Amino acid sequence: MSSNPLKITDTILRDAHQSLLATRMSTGSMLPALDKLDAVGYHSLETWGGATFDSAMRFLKEDPWERLRVLRQRLPNTPQQMLLRGQNILGYRHYPDDIVEKFVELSVKNGMHVFRVFDALNDTRNMAWAMKCVKKYGGHVQGALCYTISPVHDVASFVALAKELQELGSDSICIKDMAALCTPYVAYELVKQIKAEADLPVQFHTHNTSGFAVATLLKAAEAGVDIVDSAISSLGGGTSQPPTEPLVAIFQGTERDTGLDLSLLNEIAQYFRGVRTEQLAQFETGLETADIRVLLFQIPGGMLSNLVNQLRQQGAENRYEDVLKELPRVREDMGFPPLVTPTSQIVGTQAVVNVLTGERYKIISKEVKDYCRGLYGRPPAPINPDLIKKAVGDEELITVRPADMLEPGLEAAREEIGDLAESEEDVISYALFPQQAREFFELRRAGKVAPIEEPRIFPAKPAAAAAPQTAPTAIAPARPTRPQPNYSLWKLANRVQNRR
After folding, report:
1. Is there a contact between 12 and 231 (Cβ–Cβ < 8 Å)?
2. Nearest-angstrom CA–CA distance, 26 and 31
3. C-alpha separations of 249 from 58, 91, 263 in Å
4. Residue 432 has pLDDT above 60, yes or no
5. CB of 364 within 8 A of CB of 390?
6. Burial of 24 (0-12, 13-18, 19+ CB in 10 A)
7. HSE of 223 in the Cβ direction (CA atoms, 13 Å)?
């Protein structure tokens, strides 16, 4: 036994397929591997949250709550972990406090253990209520800081944020490097200082987009990180997490030996390799190698693929480099927000519109206007006054916690959905995603929803299908995979191109 084993959270059931395969892995495709996954001895398995909730209803015609219950039954020895967007819950806007609390209560009741809570702007006001609710209902609160690079972000600022998260009641801290920007030696310093200042377990989450994720986790481990995120090799690498098996091999025979069985991991990898190639091949992003543009432009790898697909659909692929150059400019104008849902969508699409119109901020969406008003929270740095002037004029800006301006919403949601909701969980599904939930509930009532145990198999598309399409899924979501919210700016981008 090693003296200080490095613990591993595997993302195979959530972020791995969200990053590589459009969040299309169904519960039925997971079931055959669950017994082996449960036998590995992981610290936890990330199974829920992020885009999995609305994707389940929208694309897979599954009840996400049923998935959670099934996984709880089949993973009796392994804690489940989820990604929770603070006051955004799993959506793309702020929700009232009563909806946040009911969501957390039901999540714990249905089998969730660890809640990784983050805010796109690192505004802890948008995290505090969700964290309080997790504590109230007995879950583990993992306060997450979104790592990014800018003139206003450095190791000291992230250490201060970690201490603030500790004061808010975090049981552990996560360094969430969603854009694969944290280089190995920066990771070492960041982990070392957080461990010195905050007396809590520290977990490191990164992606392999830039190509050095394994090295980053190695240095984080040397600095004393307690837990790292990785993904079984058949869905690891690329814009996903670094592969699990090499990490296990690297630390064998050292004081950080994970103790995990490579033979068992290999069996699991073989199974998911079949799922990827035989069931979900049509959702491959096409990003098969490291892409250092993420370092040049501070853009998550999945966001890069998203831009390619969006411009391809609009017949404007030749403007790709122009958009890459415009993105950091828009981000600076907006106060250097970390690029993660929903800020990645807002910043990315505004850059596209700026390029396609030929004039910066000729068209500004409701989302950008709301961001400038303060409805998303407090940006890391001041917003460019010229952008504020163009977006909202002389309107008074919001300085309070955005959710303080929201009326309770749970009873209104219950009344709106009526008897289509068969449970409290259904009411929450509707409160978060009204259109998708209603459509799913109607299909369910009509007996048109297949049992959750049946895999949803998507055959590979014929070669001709590579041409631009008009189907709703033709625009890949933020991180190559995330289903897009119905942002007005995405519609504007298409309208602008159609005018040209």
Report:
1. yes
2. 9
3. 39, 38, 11
4. yes
5. yes
6. buried
7. 26
More confidently predicted of 478 and 426 = 426
CA dihedral for 93, 97, 98, 100, sign (positive or negative): positive
Q: 153: which strand partners?
A: 150
Ranges of H-type helices in 314-409 = 320-333, 343-357, 366-373, 385-392
Amino acid at 267: E
Q: How far apart are CA 344 and CA 361, in angstroms?
A: 17
Tally the residues of the chain: 500
Distance CA 306, CA 340 (A): 13
The answer to whether residues 230 and 8 touch, using CB atoms and an 8 Å cutoff, is yes
**Cα–Cα distance for residue pair 480/18, rounded to 1 Å:** 8
The token duo for 152 is 């206003």
Amino acid, res. 423: S
pLDDT given for residue 40 in this prediction: 98
Q: Using DSSP bridges, classify how beta strands 140-146 and 114-117 pair: parallel, antiparallel or unpaired.
A: parallel
Q: Contact, 238 vs 287, CB < 8 A?
A: yes
- The pLDDT, as a whole number, for residue 472 is 28
Tell me which residue of 63, 56, 30 sits closest to 45, measured CA to CA.
30
Q: Are 403 and 393 in contact (CB under 8 A)?
A: no
CB 21 within 8 A of CB 283: yes
**DSSP state for residue 120 in the 8-state scheme:** T
Residue in the block written with tokens 């749970």: 410
For residue range 161-177, list pLDDT tens digits in order: 999 999 999 999 999 99
Cβ atoms within 10 Å of 223's Cβ, excluding its own: 20
Q: What is the mean pLDDT of the chain?
A: 90
Residue 63 DSSP code: -
Q: What angle do CA 168, 142, 188 make, to 5 degrees?
A: 105
Sign of CA dihedral 479, 481, 487, 491: positive
CA 68 – CA 80 distance, rounded (Å): 9
What would the two tokens of residue 72 be? 């709880």
Task: Give 246's contacts (C-beta < 8 A, 6+ positions apart).
Answer: 214, 233
Question: Is the pTM here over 0.85, yes or no?
Answer: yes
